[in-house]
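Data availability (excerpt). All sequences and predicted token strings are deposited with the supplementary files. A representative entry, Hydrolase Cof, is shown inline so that the format can be inspected without opening the archive.
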Amino acid sequence: MNAKGQYGLHSVDGDGAAAFEALAHVELVVSDCDGTLLHTDKSISDAAKDAVRRLHEAGVAFTVASSRPGAGMRHIVETLAVDMPYASYNGGNLVDPRTREVLAAHKLPRDAVQTSLEALAAAGVDAWVFVGDVWYLTNAEGAYVPRERRTVGYDGVLVQRFDDVDLDAVDKIVGSTADAPLLERVEQQLQTRLEGRANAARSQSYYLDITHVLANKGEAVRELARRKNVPLERVAVLGDMSNDIAMFEIAGVSIAMGQASEGVQRRASLVSATNDADGFAVGINALLSARG
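Structure token line:
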């Protein structure tokens, strides 16, 4: 890994000169939440709050994109005074922060829902189904149910079987397991089986998100930039997981957190500190410093 850097950032390949130059021209910042903007304990640090405040003061637009449901992002959006639409469900929904209205939605096709639920069941991976802001589950004792409850801020709805849910209105399916290698294999299998119908990408080592083929953070960033009338080359994005790569690929500059896997870091323009070492704030402060 190339350690040469500037402003606390470095590049994996090359000296990153073009990426550092791009920082100076950013007009819109879109950040992932968990593992990026937030510390591991789900808190928003004072450094992150200050960085976003300074972005606003500099006239740089800011919003967030997450695999969370919209309701699970409200505390973040309100704390940081986000005033433009934000993307939930990996871009499956665009939400107005003032009215909480869903401005655009991409629901999973019914056949992709069936394929996904069958594959997760066959692998012995707990499945969750999200419709609107409602989180449905069949196993209340699942290993990550308490974590998800803390993350989104509300309880899931226990059902006997997912056939009791409106499977024509699904926004996201999540597979959750502590067996990270198993989940990686299921991710690869579903990427092949769902090609052209849906996306399957891990948002954490223990979460596999399945969403509509257009419900990805790359498409979300594209739409957010269009609504703000900002060219994609003047957009900066920050993230840490494989579901963030889609936005890395289209933004003018992308910043990966220091704890991201080598594969994710190699897809980013620049690499920051870890999320718990305020890698988000380091990235934003670098951007502001580059603007002069």
